[in-house]
Amino acid sequence: MSETVSIVLVGNPNSGKTSLFNALTGLNQKVGNFPGVTVDKKVGYTRLDHRLEAKVVDLPGTYSIYPRSADEWVTFDVLLNPRNPDRPDMVICLADASNIKRNLLFCSQIIDLKIPVVIALTMMDIAQQKGIRIDVPALELALGVPVVPVNPRKEKGIAALKKALALTAVGQYKPPSGDFIPIRELASGLICKTRKYVEVRSDYAALLVAAHHEQLKFLNGGQRLALMNILAEERFNRARVQGEEIMQRYQRIAQVMNQAVVVDDPHRKNLITEHIDQVLLHRFWGYVILLAVLFLLFQSIFWLAQYPMGLIEQAFTWVSTWLSDVLPSGWFSDLLINGLVAGLSGIAVFVPQIMILFGLITILEDTGYMARVSFLSDRLMRQVGLNGKSVMPLISGLACAVPAIMATRNIENYKERLITILVTPLMSCSARLPVYIVLISLVIPDRYLLGFLSLQGLVMMGLYLLGFFTALTVAWVMKHLIHLKEKSYFILELPVYRSPRWKNVFITMVQKARIFVTDAGKVIMVISLILWILASYGPHRQMEQLKTHYTQLMDQQPQQRDALEVEYQAQRLEHSYAGILGHIIEPVIRPLGFDWKIGIALITSFAAREVFVGTMATLYSVQGGKDADRDTLRQKLEQARRPDGTQVYTLPVGLSLMIFYVFAMQCMSTLAVVKRETKSWKFPLIQLAYMTCLAYVASFITYHIF
């Protein structure tokens, strides 16, 4: 029978921690090549040997054991809270060999907590490029803990790491008996008295608990009071003690490096990375290149996805036609074809573009360019009163606002974090992508400027940039409304450039497609089926009168039967429950150029923005009956007419609708996560109100200008 031990992964941001977690546990999880990507802990399992299994918890990246942001408090609590469910039996502390001095600071703090620790040395190849050579046995001897070189990207050193962990688990490797620095000399009275009231593993843990006792939820009232009195008695100055501790640690680290680390040429020539950065981070050309990269990104979405989307549309058209020919007429076949298949086609047709978008974003992350985007954006962020750390949530918002808002936890300043939370949903997330695609393909000509610039791609890029610059403008306004006075600093370690891991790119593309089809797809399918019911049924008396009226007309005018059938289906939809609901809200949205069918789609979009596409597919399938089965969604929308015979989806209407979706909140999940992160309904309601007003006004102006 095998035992299970608990292991946590800790380390500085961008030290390869998440890559090592994937290599150990086999979980195919997204890995970002810039600091701060890991906000929540992630859990997986691995087998160390034939009798030992390990639960591995990947903790947020942190530079020091002294917590300042929400994600650093997660690491602090796991390591020091005796009642934390993830309290580790062992710690894997990652150290970037190319930045060994800074990384050993955090490792030395972990060693002094007296939890069994194994140090995993990463980035050894980059250290060699920098002329840094590390004598691993000498480093192991100087630190008093096992040190194992690993390369998680190539899965090298994983077996040796597991062996070191297994030996540590059975007690062959133990924490050093002495401290890395003389901890007790920093505050001997405080440490001795604290250990009488709080059960801790080491003097250093006692010092940390006493210094942060006000924020520690695992302490009871008596312990808090005792620690408060001890701090007063000892006249404890946390800033002074912390500063002295850091100085002593770096002095000791310098001694360790003299024993175990050799730098061939301290005045080495610039690496290739630094030469590339001279161009990509240039004060002028850097922004030109960034715009070019974004342009290529959105052009590629249309270029590469054109053929697979066409094949998917043809496949669903064939399935709908085949089902309508094979199945007998009736409510079940109508539900299957116009409800289920129509809703499913509204999901599947956009899978290629979503896969391509996330594949290209993953390539940018993997190569290291995404961190440069953060660096280039920092100047803009500071102009509008945001922390440079706000760049990462805003960039993440291009994928989904929910994890992006959770990523604001690493912003220490509360007001800056709040502003970032309130403006992040203005970034065009992947849920808006299907809406943009179907509307752009409807109203924007498929033309190329200068022979290679896709007009549709330019419009797509414009929508994304509009959301970004509006977010900055709203942040600037909020800076003055919230009276932001505190200043924060943005420290970003730029990773070296690497070739993308194509396996990781492929896995991310497949995962994002699966998430879209399963998570968003389930919502779309449920709403599509509910809509079919609402669009197929209405008040009994009205529906019977309508049926009787058109039956009589068809009997009287058999030569007009087909035209009357189309008219009957349109009238039937208009008098259905969905039609009644649409007509109720139509006066409010008519100034924006929208009809009642678009109004229904706006309401259902609150479940998820991409539901708009499934809603339109269902409504127009129900209206068209069997005659519409052979048409794609784009063809159905192109053929849509108002009662006066004019086209519904004109250029003004299409642009108005796109602008509405750029600014409107319309996402219940985002509102829920904002409430959870701010611990109040006030802020999500403010967010919903200002974004809805902004969407309405901008859409109104756009419609009437065009």
UniProtKB/TrEMBL annotation:
Question: What topology does it adopt in the membrane?
Answer: Multi-pass membrane protein
- Grouped into one coarse class, the protein's main location is membrane
Q: Show the stretches that span the lipid bilayer.
A: 284-305, 335-364, 384-406, 418-444, 450-478, 515-535, 651-673, 685-705
| Molecular function GO terms recorded | ferrous iron transmembrane transporter activity; GTP binding; metal ion binding
The residues listed in the UniProt record as binding GTP, with positions renumbered to this chain, are 11-18, 36-40, 58-61
The record's subcellular locations are:
Cell inner membrane; Cell membrane
Keyword check for Transmembrane helix:
yes
Keywords attached to this entry: Cell membrane, GTP-binding, Ion transport, Iron, Iron transport, Magnesium, Membrane, Metal-binding, Nucleotide-binding, Transmembrane, Transmembrane helix, Transport
Keyword RNA-binding on entry? no
Which InterPro entries does this one have? Fe2_transport_prot-B, Fe2_transport_prot_B_C, FeoB_GTPase, G_FEOB_dom, Gate_dom, GTP-bd, P-loop_NTPase
Provide the binding site for Mg(2+) 1. Answer: N22
Do you know which Gene3D superfamilies this protein is assigned to? P-loop containing nucleotide triphosphate hydrolases (3.40.50.300)
Q: Which CDD domains has this protein been placed in?
A: FeoB
Q: What's in the GO CC field?
A: plasma membrane
Chain ranges of the FeoB-type G domain:
4-171
Q: Name one Pfam family in it.
A: FeoB_N
Q: Summarize where Mg(2+) 2 binds, as residue positions.
A: A23, T25, G26
| Domain of life of the native organism | Bacteria
What is the recorded function of this protein according to its Swiss-Prot or TrEMBL entry?
Probable transporter of a GTP-driven Fe(2+) uptake system.
Which family does the similarity line name?
A: Belongs to the TRAFAC class TrmE-Era-EngA-EngB-Septin-like GTPase superfamily. FeoB GTPase (TC 9.A.8) family.
**Name under which the protein is recorded:** Ferrous iron transport protein B
Species name for this entry? Thermoflavifilum aggregans
Highest lineage ranks of the organism? Bacteria, Pseudomonadati, Bacteroidota, Chitinophagia, Chitinophagales
